[in-house]
């Protein structure tokens, strides 16, 4: 499948996708001549004309804009979104983790799909309490943790 990355897909995420998604052609919109700044309602028909099968985007609001929804529907292209709004390194890490976890499976399913599909790659909770579990073994020793020596 030919996968077009929308211009809102970061370069670090592009590099990660190329590294772990094999067997598909991955193209970033910014690498195509005169595609930068293409309005979404024009992007989908243009992508079809260039032989793309899937567009990956971070624009969750696309599906709330009637003209863009009409263009997506008319194109027949599969649309995959990964809605992330977190800035900086945490945001890039969350985007890479979300896409790495879901994109290969999504592409496998889309390869066999009998029609257009809209896919949302579910996020990974960005709160530290959800990402990390920290144990102080002195206060809460794990099972089999050696007891401190009594002097």
Short note summarizing the structure:
InterPro entries: VapC45_PIN-like. The chain has 151 residues and is α/β, with parallel strands linked by helices. Helix content is 38%, strand content 13%.
Question: What structural class do the secondary elements suggest?
Answer: alpha/beta
Mean pLDDT, nearest integer?
86
Largest sheet: 5 strands, parallel
Low-confidence runs: none
CATH topology name, in short, is Rossmann fold
Encode the helix/strand succession as letters. Answer: EHEHEHEHEH
Structural domain tally: 1
Number of helices: 5
User: What's the helical proportion of residues?
Assistant: 25-40%
Level-2 CATH architecture: 3-Layer(aba) Sandwich
CATH class: Alpha Beta
Count the beta strands.
5
Secondary-structure topology with pairs:
Blueprint: E1 2-5, H1 11-20, E2 25-28, H2 40-49, E3 54-57, H3 66-75, E4 78-81, H4 88-111, E5 118-120, H5 128-131
Parallel strand pairs: 1-2, 1-3, 3-4, 4-5
Describe the structure.
There is one protein chain. With 151 residues, the chain is α/β, with parallel strands linked by helices. The chain has a single domain, classed as Rossmann fold (3-Layer(aba) Sandwich), CATH 3.40.50. Helix content is 38%, strand content 13%. It contains 5 helices and 5 strands; from the N terminus they run βαβαβαβαβα. The protein has helices spanning 11-20, 40-49, 66-75, 88-111, 128-131, and strands at residues 2-5, 25-28, 54-57, 78-81, 118-120. Strands 2-1-3-4-5 form a 5-stranded parallel beta sheet, covered by helices on one side. β3 (54-57), α3 (66-75) and β4 form a beta-alpha-beta unit. This is VapC45 PIN like domain-containing protein. Residues 1-78 form the VapC45 PIN like domain. InterPro entries: VapC45_PIN-like (IPR041375). Pfam families: PIN_10.
């Amino acid at each position: 499948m030919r996968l077009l990355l929308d211009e809102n897909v970061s370069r670090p995420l592009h590099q990660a996708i190329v590294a772990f998604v094999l067997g598909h052609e991955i193209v970033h919109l910014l690498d195509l001549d005169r595609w930068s700044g293409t309005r979404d309602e024009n992007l989908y028909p243009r992508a079809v004309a260039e032989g793309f099968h899937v567009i990956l985007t971070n624009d969750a609001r696309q599906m709330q804009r009637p003209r863009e929804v009409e263009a997506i529907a008319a194109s027949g292209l599969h649309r995959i979104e990964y809605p992330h709004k977190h800035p900086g390194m945490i945001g890039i890490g969350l985007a890479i983790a979300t896409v790495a976890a879901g994109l290969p499976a999504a592409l496998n399913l889309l390869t066999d799909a009998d029609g257009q599909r809209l896919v949302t790659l579910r996020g990974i909770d960005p709160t530290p309490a959800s990402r990390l579990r920290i144990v102080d073994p002195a206060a809460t020793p794990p099972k089999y943790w050696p007891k401190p020596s009594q002097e």
